[in-house]
Amino acid sequence: MTQSPYDPQPTPGAPRAHDPYGQDPFAHGAQPQGAPAHGSPGAAPQGSAGAPGPAPGTDLGADLGAGLRFARDAMLRNPVAFIVPGVIYGVLAFVLIIGATILGFVLAAPQIEAAAYSEDPPLGVFLTIYGLIALGGLASMPLMWFWQSGAVRAGAEVIAGRRPSFGQAMIGTGRILLTMLLVTVIVWVGLVLFYIPGLIASVLLAYALPASARGARPVEAIKESFSLVKNNLVTVIVAALVIAAIGTVAGFLVITLVVIIPFTVLFQQGIYERLSGRELAEPVRA
Q: In 10 A of CB 260, how many CB atoms?
């Protein structure tokens, strides 16, 4: 179990660390909404969401179960914040890709006509159409980054005991976006280098975004994720397999992508909190 240096809610008995970024949502004695005050008779001794159980980061099943329950409850109690942005960004990405495809056929029309009277393969036609489709896909990627970063930001609000707003869920903070960009570059470079290094990097950096939402700068968030994975390798691998299994099942229906992306983000944030030694508060009800 690793204690995050950006922990705004230290484990019981541990001194409160100074937050150099002013990100402490529990400053001045504030408690998450719906959670019992520390030390009160109603406070659960261990476990997530007020349920007794093993201490965070000490039991594989308890940590995975707590992460899954947190992701489920956070989404069910904040459907607008976690689902509507995905619909909006999904429609915009679809428009970009379809628009690029139509533009490709329009620009390739003269080449298609010329190819009808030629015996040579119409390579120019394919390059024009597929090139513009690829450009449309690249242009839609920032939309996906905005969506995922917004889900991370909204998830941090839920963890802090607050209800995320629609605006918060639409795009993350600059720190989250910069961390996401750095992680994406590292993973892409790894994928180019014989693919396997990219897969390893994606696992090692899986918790950089939750760390950045807690207040870590991009490089510090990457270091913290690496340390967390190294010290909790079995839990992290099993969590990655759970995400892969859920994604495989959900991938059969395109519409489920609107749910699976924020669910995955919330699950990773829940696991990050547990492995950092923190209880997961019950998401605020409407």
A: 18
